[in-house]
Each structure stands twice: as C-alpha cells, then as structure tokens.
Amino acid sequence: KGALGYVREFTRHSSDVLGNLNELRLRGILTDVTLLVGGQPLRAHKAVLIACSGFFYSIFRGRAGVGVDVLSLPGGPEARGFAPLLDFMYTSRLRLSPATAPAVLAAATYLQMEHVVQACHRFIQTSYEP
Amino acid sequence: HEGVVATVKEAGRSIHEIPREE
User: Fold this and answer.
1) Residue A80, helix vs strand vs coil
2) Cα nearest neighbour of B7 on chain A
3) Can you tell me the distance from the alpha carbon of A29 to that of A84, in angstroms, rounded to the nearest whole number?
4) ipTM over 0.90
5) What is the pLDDT of residues A14-30, one digit of tens each?
6) Taking chain A, what is the end-to-end CA distance rounded to the nearest angstrom?
7) Which residue of B has its CA nearest to A9?
8) pLDDT classification of A50: cutoffs 50, 70, 90
9) Which residues contact A88 (CB under 8 A, 6 or more apart)?
10) How confident is the model at residue B2 (pLDDT cuts 50, 70, 90)?
C-alpha cells in the first residue's frame, strides 16, 4: 500500500500557465503561426488556438496542420473582432463594447467559439434593453 | 488516489513568472 499523503492543489495554476503563455506570445517566443487578418499579422501558438476554437481544431488537428505557418482570416468589417478573441484565449478576459460586439460576434462565429458567441449575443441583447 | 487522505489548497503562485517584456 502507498503511504498516506496529501494532494496539494495549486488553485491558481491554470491562470499562472495561461499568463506565462500570454507573455510568450507577446514576446514572440515559440509562437508557431501567423494569422493574417486584413493584412495585419497576429502571432500565436497553435496549441492555444486549437484548444480554444473549433475552427482552428479543424485546421491544425491533422498532419497537414503542422506545415501551416501562415493562415489568412477574413478581412472586412469583422476583422477587428479577431484581436479581442486572441486576447481572450490568452487571458480569459473578453473585451466587449457596443461598438465592437458585432465584429467580435462575427469573428467568434467564424472561429466556432460557441460560448463566446452566446456571451456576445447576451451582451448585445442587454445593451439594446432600455 | 491511493494513499491520499486529504487535498490541501495552495493559494500562492504555482510556477515561475516569465519576466514581462520592457
């Protein structure tokens, strides 16, 4: 029988890991893909993208995904919705305002981030209520 | 878990902090 002992659960571990991943992203360390959004490059880690988005899961899950270094996302009015989503993936914080919510909603729909889509819908509904 | 009698919560930082870029 194993000796009796304790499990020590570090309650902030997940947020500490995510915070370090965000710092790695901001410093360009081990980032392995460039997202081109309306011509603007956004560097990221495929592992984080695939963990957060059904769209990226579809793109990167197979062997073909290993060779993808640059990925173009739709430009146009929705483009400014992608950067807040990337920040959300790395921080768990989603910045929304009445001006940006429709673009974030469109981008989240494209990236198949259902829970964010629902949050955007709730925010937009609330902001239209008197 | 075999041999485990309790779970103790650790509220402090769990890993090193990557220095922020200046």
Assistant:
1) helix
2) A7
3) 20
4) no
5) 999 999 999 999 999 99
6) 64
7) B9
8) very high
9) A94, A95, A116
10) low
